[in-house]
């Protein structure tokens, strides 16, 4: 539709001159028409002029698009014949102007519209051909701006709705000489949105064979509600929660929390999230939990895995469980900590919480407590931070300082003093923590986090105090903790190195240690390019608290990969472990298409296969393995959800649960391919599609995949973008026309034809064609028995109905259609539809 309008406008411009008032005058003699007296070019006659009225337009501020809004055009006070866009107070708020700029604003039409000239350099122009309003504002007038980020004035809380997300894994395995075992595990979220509020209920569970002693039931792990408070860049949470602290350790409680939310800051000012690195011997299930609550669960292919999409609010000790297909289980812990506590100069970050500590399975564990912490950016290089945590029998106070060392990195140091009354005994002690972070750009190196914490013997953290109170004695008093993560690139060698290390020692039980090393190098041999060699080595060392027996798990994974075809990869590997198990394998992985990928593996002991399908309703993975004379297994994993709003609902795939999402409405047209995050999805039978895992407080775009559109579908509006608050259900419509296409000739009741340039629309007011010479028109979006409307001279003039039986190939023949509802004397001659026609002979 836009293409046809553009071509027509281009032809008109060849015979047009601009007169006073920016009015375009057309020389119709250049048009090869049989009837030059029957022309309607009124919509093209004035450059940039828009008749007074209200129009639905998409607003573009500089290079950023805002949601569609209804924009009024009024004649200015000093130009009764003109027309100017009215920027309402609501729209001006979305511009994101600095406070000092807002104070300069002037208004007209009784304070309803912005005086454009009150901001020097600001320009506004409307374009009905693209249904858009373009606003240009000098960047110096706007709030902090970053790529893909909008100021709070443009954030969208979404629409009301309910959601149900799930992550399920079913496994059936058989071992020689024993009964077959089947289990089902999963976690998910039920939720509801109302305005800025998000209500969530998390569930998790594991169901196993009755013959298996560890059978469990499904359980609710968390009930809570939260909302964003953009005015103070904070997040308010009510219900069951975890203490997310940069100073104290994490524990579960029921109550209220108010935290500064880094996610509401521009991306380059936000914090970081922990990552989990390991090696799976087979296609394995990885479960990451904290204090019994499952945070992440996924089926991974054999080989190294690196999980980097955990929530950046996660702190404290994470428990990682790797369940292999042969039934073996590997567990280890990851210490999650924050980078040095620094705050931008002149700003204060804070976290407040109050409630009662609670356990996932045992309910309340302690007395009502209060906690608070802060960080103050004193100057460009210094930050002060600290906080307090207290209940009737426990008190902890902390104070620290952070320093930006510029070229030398960043460092912070804090001291925490804790006092506890436990079973009539008073205990007190100190804990010292040192943190360091540095990017060594000149060496292509990065120390993501390096830290050391030492605690005196009588020092107890809140979680240790709660455990001691519940179990009747001191439990796992921490002595020291070392953590470090280092990345290094050797560009001349094409080598990348990653090393992580942690060492945890205790006063009353043996220490534990874990390190992981990853090396990867890309190289070429002759005509074979992008070959890779990778090495992953790890060691976990723990001692049993009661027996004192040391448990060491050491392993190495070495692989060589060779690219095959367009997207395939052939990999040979050796996996060795301290248990004396050496496994040699070869696997081939490839993508069948944009939605499907697979991996086939064969080793000295087994064969296996892995298939992943990114479906419209769910992300499904299937894994099968067979080991000679030992075991066989089949595992199925599905991650997806459902979202329901007042505008409709849809099933969809999702990586996380309970997160932000965007519903796209294609006006009831099914099968429309939509691009967003990850693989494309398609609108369902009701014309709804959901793009999940959308970033919060970050500009998100979704578009129609024009290359994959069905032949009978045409998109008149192919893209939308917006910025959603955390957990929101966004809603946007994309104009899509569905139906057949055909050539037709329109005639009026008196035998004449509609004028050249007349517009044809369907009942949804979507443009379907422009009338050409002698009433001919190329129509799209044709529905059998559907009604269409023909307009010219700014008014609807007649309607026609498509026949019930349409030709299979509408372009092979021409339809003759009668347009009813207008008489011959009501057609508009060219002299009435044009302001002034330039006489080509007179001008020459």
UniProtKB/TrEMBL annotation:
Origin organism lineage: Bacteria, Pseudomonadati, Pseudomonadota, Gammaproteobacteria, Pseudomonadales
Domain PapC N-terminal: 25-169
InterPro entries per UniProt: Fimb_usher, FimD_plug_dom, PapC-like_C, PapC-like_C_sf, PapC_N, PapC_N_sf
Domain PapC-like C-terminal: 746-800
Organism whose genome encodes this protein: Pseudomonas bubulae
Keywords: Cell outer membrane, Membrane, Signal, Transmembrane, Transmembrane beta strand, Transport
Name this polypeptide is given: Outer membrane usher protein
NCBIfam families, sorted: PRK15284.1
Segments for region (Disordered): 568-589
The family this protein is said to belong to: Belongs to the fimbrial export usher family.
Gene3D superfamilies xrefs: 2.60.40.2070, 2.60.40.3110, 3.10.20.410, Outer membrane usher protein FimD, plug domain
Alphabetical list of SUPFAM superfamilies matching this protein: FimD N-terminal domain-like
């Amino acid at each position: 539709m836009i293409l046809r309008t553009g071509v027509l406008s281009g032809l008109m411009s060849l015979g047009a001159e601009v007169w006073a008032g920016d009015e375009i005058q057309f020389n119709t003699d250049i048009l090869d028409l049989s009837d030059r007296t029957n022309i309607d070019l009124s919509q093209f006659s004035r450059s940039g002029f828009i008749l007074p009225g209200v129009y639905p337009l998409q607003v573009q501020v500089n290079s950023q698009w805002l949601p569609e809004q209804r924009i009024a055009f009024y004649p200015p006070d000093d130009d009764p014949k003109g027309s100017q866009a009215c920027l309402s107070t609501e729209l001006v708020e979305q511009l994101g102007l600095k406070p000092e700029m807002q104070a300069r604003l002037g208004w007209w039409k009784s304070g309803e519209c912005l005086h454009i000239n009150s901001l020097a350099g600001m320009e506004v122009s409307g374009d009905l051909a693209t249904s858009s309003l373009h606003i240009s504002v000098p960047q110096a007038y706007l709030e902090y701006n970053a790529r893909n980020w909008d100021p709070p004035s443009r954030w969208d809380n979404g629409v009301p709705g309910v959601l149900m997300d799930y992550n399920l894994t079913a496994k059936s395995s058989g071992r020689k000489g024993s009964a077959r075992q089947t289990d089902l595990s999963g976690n998910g979220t039920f939720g509801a949105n109302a305005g800025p509020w998000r209500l969530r209920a998390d569930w998790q569970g594991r169901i196993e064979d009755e013959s298996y002693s560890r059978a469990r039931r499904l359980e609710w792990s968390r009930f809570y509600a939260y909302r964003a408070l953009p005015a103070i860049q904070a997040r308010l949470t009510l219900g069951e929660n975890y203490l997310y602290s940069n100073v104290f350790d994490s524990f579960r409680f029921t109550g209220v929390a108010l935290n500064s939310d880094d996610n509401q800051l521009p991306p380059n000012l936000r914090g970081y999230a922990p990552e989990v690195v390991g090696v799976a011997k087979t296609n394995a299930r990885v479960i990451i939990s904290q204090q019994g609550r499952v945070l992440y669960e996924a089926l991974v292919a054999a080989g190294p895995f690196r999980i980097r999409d955990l929530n950046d609010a996660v702190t404290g000790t994470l428990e990682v469980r790797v369940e292999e297909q042969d039934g073996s289980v590997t567990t280890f812990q990851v210490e999650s900590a924050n980078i040095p506590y620094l705050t931008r100069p002149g700003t204060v970050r804070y976290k407040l919480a109050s409630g009662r500590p609670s356990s996932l399975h045992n309910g309340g564990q302690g007395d009502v407590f209060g906690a608070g912490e802060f960080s103050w950016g004193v100057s460009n290089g210094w930050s002060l931070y600290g906080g307090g945590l207290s209940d009737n029998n426990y008190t902890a106070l902390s104070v620290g300082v952070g320093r930006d060392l510029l070229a030398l990195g960043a460092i912070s140091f804090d001291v925490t003093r804790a006092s506890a009354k436990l079973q009539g005994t008073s205990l007190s002690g100190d804990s010292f923590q040192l943190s360091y972070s540095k990017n060594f750009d000149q060496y292509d190196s990065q120390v993501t986090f390096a830290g050391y914490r030492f605690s005196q013997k009588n020092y107890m953290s809140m979680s240790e105090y709660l455990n001691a109170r519940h179990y009747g004695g001191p439990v796992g008093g921490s002595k020291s903790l070392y953590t470090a993560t280092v990345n290094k690139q050797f560009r001349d060698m094409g080598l990348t190195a990653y090393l992580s290390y942690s060492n945890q020692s205790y006063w009353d039980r043996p220490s534990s240690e874990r390190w992981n090393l990853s090396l990867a190098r890309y190289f070429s041999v002759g005509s074979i390019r992008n070959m890779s060699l990778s090495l992953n080595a790890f060691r976990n060392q723990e001692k049993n608290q009661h027996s004192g027996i040391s448990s060491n798990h050491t392993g190495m994974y070495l692989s060589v990969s060779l690219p095959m075809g367009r997207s395939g990869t052939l990999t040979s590997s050796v996996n060795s472990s301290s248990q004396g198990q050496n496994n040699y394998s070869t696997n081939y992985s490839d993508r069948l298409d944009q939605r499907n990928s697979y991996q086939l593996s064969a080793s000295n002991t087994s064969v296996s296969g892995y298939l992943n399908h990114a479906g419209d309703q769910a992300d499904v993975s299937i894994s099968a393995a067979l080991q000679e004379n030992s075991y066989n297994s089949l595992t199925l994993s599905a991650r997806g959800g459902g979202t329901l709003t007042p505008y409709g609902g849809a099933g969809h795939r999702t990586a996380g649960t309970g997160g932000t999402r965007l519903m796209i409405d294609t006006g009831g047209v099914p099968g429309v391919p939509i691009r967003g995050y990850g693989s494309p999805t398609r609108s369902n039978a009701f014309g709804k599609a959901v793009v999940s895992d959308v970033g919060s407080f970050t500009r998100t775009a979704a578009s129609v995949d024009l290359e994959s559109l069905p032949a009978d579908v045409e998109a008149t509006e192919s893209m939308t973008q917006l910025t959603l608050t955390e957990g929101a259900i966004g809603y946007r419509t994309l104009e899509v026309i569905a139906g057949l296409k055909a050539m037709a000739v329109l005639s009026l009741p008196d035998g004449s034809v509609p004028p050249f340039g007349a517009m044809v629309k369907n009942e949804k007011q979507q443009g379907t064609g422009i009338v050409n010479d002698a009433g001919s028109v190329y129509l799209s979006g044709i529905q059998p028995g559907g009604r269409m409307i023909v307009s010219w001279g700014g008014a609807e003039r007649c309607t026609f109905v498509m026949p019930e039986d349409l030709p299979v190939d509408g372009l092979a023949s021409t339809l003759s259609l009668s347009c009813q509802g207008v008489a011959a004397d009501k057609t508009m001659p060219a002299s009435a539809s044009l302001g002034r026609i330039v006489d080509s002979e007179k001008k020459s």
